[in-house]
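#struct-help
A.M.: can someone run this one for me? Single chain, 72 residues.
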Amino acid sequence: MRERVQQVIEKIRPLLQRDGGDIQLVDVTDGIVKVKLTGACGSCPMSAMTLKMGVEKQLKQEIPEIKEVISV
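D.P.: on it. Structure tokens below:
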């Protein structure tokens, strides 16, 4: 599953990089994906919305087994 998650993150990454941010996959355990938002995304007040409405939504859409995405 980690490989599948990484593939989806690679699709999302250019959108975050366009705004000066980035995302790193930290871990995937029991349907919980842990990521680290870096660059502009790490300190952005909208990062929680980006995480849930962007990253989590896309991951759940492409990999239904995903339960949640959290930032670490």
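A.M.: thanks! Residues 2-71 form a domain with the GMP Synthetase; Chain A, domain 3 fold (CATH 3.30.300.130).
D.P.: also worth noting: The beta strands are 21-29, 32-39, 68-71.
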